[in-house]
Amino acid sequence: MKAGTYLKRLFYPPHCLLCGQILDVRAAAAVCTHCRPADYIPTNPRCPVCSRPVDLAGKKCPGCRAHHNVTVGRGTLLYRDAVQESIHAFKYEGMKEYASGYAKLMIEFDRDFWSGLGEDFALVPVPIHAKRRRERGYNQAEELARALAEAFLQKTGMRIPVWPGLLRTKHTAPLRQMGAQSRRRALAGAFQTDSRAGSPPVQALVLIDDIYTSGSTIETCAEVLKKHFPNIKVFFWTAAIRE
Ligand SMILES: [Zn+2]
Ligand SMILES: [Zn+2]
């Protein structure tokens, strides 16, 4: 560990992202020795689109069937109990340091997903509106994308770029309480590409967000990317996925 990193961890010790306990400053783990992230990994068989557990191999989950979701990807941890509290703290209570813990777990548990992408892909954080960013002080998806790029470099030596090419141009009311249809309507026209970012220098883009719920946010972002860059494949990868 670099001296600077060690000092930083000494003064801002990392916390277990499942129980909040302070971790050993020399450890590079995402969780404490008591917590078991494997308990939150979706079981097989999984939905071929969103990766949620399903009854029959090859069959889409009810959510993907109902909402015609097509963007394939992974949600690493099932959104329940400790993961639910953790994501809440990550998003609303300033625990942006959790990003590096999620990134480590995502790379560890979804190796089959990212190794299938080759090395020619970039991470695209799902943007939040400037107003919400000012209120919150950070965009959790951006923190996660940066932490993933850093974890890829440390664990695999791969240099995976973050391509911040999406903008959220429409402020919407919180989507949490809405059904999938109302979410889609609320999100119509909410995202645009940022011309300052240029064209992504890769063959695949992976949308990064904290949580996959109905898939409406991911699908809306993916549509914008596919429209502007028809030759680039679009996937998603989130720290958590609602069951
Ligand atoms: Zn713990
Ligand atoms: Zn699904």
Detailed description of the structure:
The chain has about 240 residues and is of the alpha/beta class. It folds into two domains: about 1-35, no CATH class; about 40-240, Rossmann fold (3-Layer(aba) Sandwich), CATH 3.40.50. Helices cover about 35% and strands about 15% of the residues. It has nine helices and six strands; from the N terminus they run ααβαααβααβαββαβ. The chain has helices at about 5-10, 60-65, 80-90, 100-110, 110-115, 130-135, 140-155, 180-185, 215-230; strands at about 75-80, 120-125, 165-170, 190-195, 205-210, 235-240. The strands form two sheets. It has a four-stranded parallel beta sheet with strand order 1-6-5-2, sandwiched between helices. A two-stranded antiparallel ribbon has the order 3-4. β5, α9 (about 215-230) and β6 form a beta-alpha-beta unit. α4 packs across α7. It is globular and about 45 Å long. Bound molecules: zinc ion (2 copies).
